[in-house]
Specification:
Elements: H1 3-9, H2 11-23, E1 29-33, H3 38-51, H4 56-67, E2 74-78, H5 86-96, E3 107-112, H6 119-130, E4 136-142, H7 150-154, E5 157-160, H8 166-177, H9 181-190, H10 194-204, H11 206-222, H12 224-234, H13 238-253, H14 262-274, H15 282-297
Parallel strand pairs: 1-4, 1-5, 2-3, 3-4
Helix pairs in contact: 1-2, 3-4, 5-6, 8-9, 9-11, 9-13, 11-12, 11-13, 12-15, 13-14, 14-15
Length: about 300
């Protein structure tokens, strides 16, 4: 992610950072609210704050070291996969009490998906934000601000990240990278940065998931039971469920697939995806989907 991308697609954020650098007056806590690219934006902000500059080369160097976990003055707590614990925040507090190593004497903390943290962790974090020590800065992210403690929200500069037109991103992915429509759609929900799409697709196995969806609806035309059995064999974790069912919903909504009772099938898919959470038991979820699907297909 670079300054030009931020300036073009997140102008409010860029203006805040530009003015803060010019006036040498930075808020000590920010809350980024949005659907995608949050960790990338947070890393970019860390580079700006840490270097006190909008110079791209300096920022890229910081981001590179953050990604490799090689920068002791920038710490990341990530609640994407697992809940952030109080012990992690206490350890962070100890690390922040140590002297900074950089020229600006600053330390930056990124707390990604701050809504996925224990109550004790959030209370400890709140205390750190309320009583900042020295040149310590906090960048929090969430895609659900309603799940963040109101007291934390009120003590941060809230920045609503702007969404880029999704259809434009989908078309660009299809045209530039030659991916199918379902893959392009799902990737557009994860990032707005075309230069990140290919690596994400490989990392998350997106095109394999899209073929599962195409095969599922093809098999449904022949035998619903076979389609369900094949799906049960291939879907075995939360991330694959999320990707596959979002693609199903998109495919049904935009007539990528033409099947009988498509509205009822789409509703079953929506009900299934609404049950996905960090503790979901995937085999049971797929069994429930199969039961509901047969009810609407064999009506």
């Amino acid at each position: 992610m670079n300054s030009q991308w931020i300036k073009q697609h997140q102008p409010t954020l860029y203006r805040i950072l530009q003015q803060s650098i010019a006036k040498s007056r930075l808020s000590h806590a920010f809350l980024l609210i949005g659907d995608k690219d949050l960790i990338d934006i947070a890393q970019f902000m860390s580079g700006v704050i840490y270097t006190h500059s909008l110079q791209q080369e300096e920022i890229e160097d910081v981001i590179h070291h953050i990604e490799l976990n090689q920068l002791v003055d920038v710490k990341v707590l990530d609640g994407f996969q697992t809940s952030i614990k109080k012990e992690e925040v206490i350890q962070l507090q100890h690390q922040l009490s140590q002297s900074a190593t950089g020229a600006t004497n600053r330390k930056v903390v990124i707390i990604h998906h701050c809504d996925n943290a224990s109550t004790q962790a959030l209370n400890s974090l709140l205390k750190m934000i309320e009583e900042p020590v020295g040149e310590n800065y906090f960048i929090l992210t969430t895609n659900n601000v309603n799940q963040v403690l109101p007291t934390i929200v009120s003590r941060c500069i809230n920045i609503q990240c702007e969404n880029i037109n999704q259809d434009e991103i989908i078309n660009e992915i299809e045209e530039q990278l030659g991916m199918n429509r379902l893959s392009a759609y799902y990737l557009s929900t994860l990032t707005s940065q075309i230069n990140r799409v290919e690596s994400l697709a490989n990392e998350l196995n997106i095109e394999t998931y899209s073929m599962v969806v195409y095969d599922f609806f093809h098999d449904m035309q022949e035998d619903v039971d076979v389609a369900i059995v094949n799906l049960q064999l291939l879907v075995n974790d939360r991330e694959s469920v999320k990707a596959i069912f979002q693609m199903m919903i998109y495919g049904l909504s935009y007539k990528v697939f033409s099947i009988e009772n498509s509205i009822a099938v789409q509703e079953v898919c929506l009900q299934t995806i609404s049950k996905i959470n960090r503790s979901v038991y995937v085999p049971l979820l797929i069994d429930q989907f199969a039961y509901q699907l047969k009810e609407v297909i064999y009506v």
